[in-house]
Design a protein that fits this description.
Elements: H1 3-19, E1 25-27, H2 33-54, H3 69-95, E2 99-101
Length: 106
């Protein structure tokens, strides 16, 4: 079996296994839904601003040269921005006393 197929089969298995797990969510003892909504919104806004500052829209990094450089560079900047935003959001929520949990509450 070609290497690409082996990698694809492995990826499908990982995705299938992880899709069965409960998605992680944030928890904070004593925080009601209103507090959590406000904290989440504040952290999302702060994270978005920080990511935009680090990876502004419309700028190109030195990632690629040649044909397709503009598109590839912008795609890379978009991915970097998304990862930075998620990282800043997680740090903000942790700073407010939240922790990630995969425990299901029904």
């Amino acid at each position: 079996m070609p290497r690409v197929m082996v990698g694809l089969v492995a990826l499908v298995h990982v995705l299938a296994l992880t899709s069965c797990a409960a998605p992680p969510h944030w928890e904070k003892p004593g925080a009601d839904a209103s507090v959590m909504t406000n904290d989440t919104s504040a952290c999302r806004s702060a994270a978005r601003r920080e990511a935009e500052r680090s990876y502004p829209h419309g700028t190109m990094g030195p990632y690629y040269s040649g044909a397709g450089a503009i598109v590839l560079s912008q795609q890379r900047a978009d991915v970097d921005r998304a990862f930075a935003e998620e990282r800043h959001f997680n740090q903000c929520m942790q700073g407010k006393g939240y922790r990630r949990s995969t425990t299901r509450h029904e």
